[in-house]
Amino acid sequence: MSSVFRIAVEEWRLLRRDRVAVLGLALLLLLTAVAGFTAWEQRRSSAAERARHQAQVDHEFETQPERHPHRMVHYGHFVFRPLNPLAAFDAGVDAYTGHTLFLEGHRQNSANFGDVRQSSLLLRFGQLTPAFVLQVLAPLLLIFVGHGSLARERESGTLRVLLAQGVRPWQIVAGKLLALSGVAAVAWLPALLALGWIVLATPTPLGLAALLAAGYGLWLLLWVLGIVALSAVFARARDALVALLAVWAVSVVLVPRLAPELAASTLALPTRFETDIAVARDLAALGDSHDPNDPYFADFKKKLLAQYGVGRVEDLPVNYKGLLGMEGERLTSALFERYADAGFERQAAQLRLVDGFAWLSPVIALRRLSMAAAGTDLQNYRRFVEQAERHRYQLVQQLNRLQAEKLSFAGDRSSRDSRISPEHWHGMADFQFEAAPPSEAFSRAGPAAGVLLGWLVALAGLLALATRRLGRITR
């Protein structure tokens, strides 16, 4: 048996005798298992509820009686964001963004019913998911288990004895690393099993689950290296414990909370009230389709009559009101899209500022990687909103086209002749969300993975310096 493995086995033996360490590890495993089960059950029930509501509103839309097409434009429709299976592992921003969109003509609404708005403030600290347990609680357990791995040997004098017997410093450090890595692997195992279950039970790409597993494995390895390195630097175990707890509090709790606040104050988003005023001002500048003297729509009418070679809208082969509705919707939708893009780009800029703090707090990089792989980051939410907006625009324009083609201009004024049969909108409102390919998730996770690897190199260098320092003890 090599010296490295002997040291690791001895460390495991000491840990097994430490009731606090054993109890802490058992509680962490239990908490991870409970978090995985409850998050999966919550995700399953939420997905089923959204699917049920989507089927209900689809049915209600298709079973509308004979109506004027523009009445259907204002009747509107709901779409619900489907849940990614890996959201059971890391809910990401889903709890903050909302999941229900109301689609209607002449407006672009925001998603509603976010979990944070309907829950207590405790949800803002973190949801009980495997990701939260590994990000916040697992490092805390490793600190209490491993803070004295080398400092304890120095305090008791056994470190000098080992060195005097010819055991090399790197062998001692490697044995401690192996022992603490074993504890980290045990803490990581329930989350790994949860990912395996998700892959087997759902059509989740294996590569994304592997990316999550590798990211959290790297995260725990960072803490193993850092804990052993600081334990080698300090002469007393309690000093190492205090220093490690300070590092955990700053890097895991303080910086991830302060960074978004600093980004939000540096690049503040306009309020909903300010945005509504700006949109209303720009809408007024576009023109009023109901005003026959409006310059833009008067010119639109003139060009349309010239295109068809007629002198009056009554002589057009299509219903002028439907064409007018299509042009108005085209203009307003382009305006809504411009404001939505500006808002998302502003939020993306805020995220880039937050990412800069990942060199102070690697948990920020881990969260970026985790949410990208789980499909619960801002980019995936934006993908849903943009697809829903395209669907809204197509739905409204289809209804406007029905008004233009199925109703005459003269009959459009008659309550009896201004209705069409409901089979015209059967299947029209069906919405199918297209998830991003796994390659996009890997691309977005790449920079975060690079930050974590940079931390790995830095901590490995710190550990190498601490190991060299241990060799001077007997000199």
What this model shows, in words?
The chain has one domain (3-266, 318-470). The protein contains 16 helices and 3 strands. The longest helix is centred in the first third of the chain and has 44 residues, at 19-62. With 475 residues, the protein is mainly alpha-helical. α9 (206-233) crosses α10 (237-266) and α14 packs antiparallel against α16 (438-470). Residues 117-125 have low confidence and may be disordered. The chain has a 3-stranded antiparallel β-sheet with strand order 1-2-3. β2 and β3 form a beta hairpin. The chain has helices at 3-17, 19-62, 69-75, 94-97, 130-146, 151-156, 158-164, 169-201, 206-233, 237-266, 272-286, 295-308, 320-356, 362-374, 378-406, 438-470; strands at 77-80, 100-104, 107-108. It is 70% helix and 2% strand. The two termini are 28 Å apart.
Number of domains: 1
- The chain-level structural class is mainly alpha
Question: How far is the first residue's CA from the last residue's CA?
Answer: 28 Å
Strand content: under 5%
Count of helical stretches: 16
Runs in which pLDDT lies below 50 for 5 or more consecutive residues are 117-125
Give the total of beta strands: 3
Largest sheet: 3 strands, antiparallel
What's the order of the H and E elements? HHHEHEEHHHHHHHHHHHH
Q: pLDDT average, as an integer?
A: 88
Instruction: Give me the Rg, rounded.
Output: 30 Å
Give the fraction of residues assigned to helices: 55-70%
**Spatial order of strands in the largest sheet:** 1-2-3
C-alpha geometry:
elongated
